[in-house]
Structures are given as C-alpha cells and as structure tokens.
Amino acid sequence: MVGLGRCADSGMCAIKFLCVKPTEHDIQSKAKKQPLPYTLVAKQHRKKALFSMVVSFVFAGFVLGALMTLWVTNIQGLGHTAAMAATAGAVIGTFKTIGRFAELLISKNLYPLVTYYLSVALMVAGLVTLLIVGFTVWGVLLAAALYGMGDGIKTIANGTLPLALFGGEGYGKLHGWVNLVMGVFSASSPFVFAWITQTYSGWWSFAVMCACLVMAGVFALLIPDPRKHSRTRFNIRKSA
Predict the structure, then answer these.
(1) Tens digits of residue pLDDT in 57-110
(2) What is the span of the domain harbouring residue 104?
(3) Which candidate among 80, 143, 182, 218 keeps its CA 20 to 30 Å from the CA of 14?
(4) First to last CA, the chain
C-alpha cells in the first residue's frame, strides 16, 4: 500500500509538472515579489555542513524505514493487541498531516535549521515516551502523536534545509544525491531492526531507534548555522 501511495504521488507530481508548467509571465511576476533573505553557509564551512546534514538525514531516515515495517510487531511486544497497534499507527499518519500544517504556519518565522531541530526533538520525545510509558494505552497514543508530528515536519525540512544552507544553484542534483544516500541505508534498516526485535525484543528495537534519532540530533547540532558564520544572502523564493 505504501508503494502504491508513493507511485500515485509521483504520478500526480509528473502530471502537475506537465500540465501546470509556469509561463514566462509567471516567472517574471514571482521574481518581482519581495525577497525573503536566507544566509548561505560560508565556503569554508560547506563540507562540514553537508557532511553533518547528510549523516543526520541518514540516521533519521534509517529509523523511518524500519519503524513503519515493524510497528505492529513491536507494539504487540509491549503488551498491546494488533488492533491497538494499528490504531496507534493511524495516529502517526494523522499527526504527520498536523505536523506539516503546523510547519506551514510557523515556517515564515523559523529558519529551516530550527525547524529541523524541532522535528528531530519531537521524534525523540515520541520514542522516549514509548520506551517509558508505552506499555499503557495513553502512552502509546501520545508517543505516536509526538513521533508523527515530528516526522511530518521533517519531511518538509528535508527539502527546505538543503536549499536554505546551500542555495538554489545545483539544488536538484544535491537533493538527488542526498536522497540516494538516505535510500541506500533506509533499505537495510528493516532487516537490522527485525533482527534486533527477534533476538532481543520490540522494546530494545525501539531503544536503538531512539538512539539513532539522538545521533541525528547530535549531527544536526553540528551543522554550522550560516546566520552566524556567513554574510552571503540568498532569496529562497526567487530561486524556487
């Protein structure tokens, strides 16, 4: 079902690109809009910023690839029924949408790096809640809501953060390579965490996922904040 959903999303994007292609007038009108200044990473900090960002994305994506695959099994391992696990999974999906809507409302006032910090913090909070009180019904639902909201915000931050840090030039190529690296690691995560679940328990599987998200947060904090280290400004709207 997830694969069919992604194919449908890709198809809709392709149709929108072909049928709603912007005209020259649209491009000129957009260029005349009041710019929103973003500070780019200084040249001497670009390698560190790129490495830290990619590693952070990989750790966070590594969890996502396994969590949705093993969610029902691991939640049952905490003492819940399959129906309860499915309900909590639905809560994750609902709060992903809520998180994306919240990001839409606050994104004008928050720098994308701060938004990414918030997303990782919410996901960590969700798994910590699951580890501590996930044996209760309210605990697993609260954990699902926190994690889902964080993951929803992260989905948008994965696109806006590279653009804000490195600018629009070569953005498509950069984002493509980042997604390729993330995909390679995410593809192996269900097998890794399935082994942990089988060998130890679902609780320990969630604990390792939480550790991965903590590492994602650590590397996110290592990303040089361009507002402090650079004076190069970039109009993110104009390049979009």
Answers:
(1) 999 999 988 998 999 999 999 999 999 999 999 999 999 999 999 888 877 778
(2) 33-239
(3) 182
(4) 31
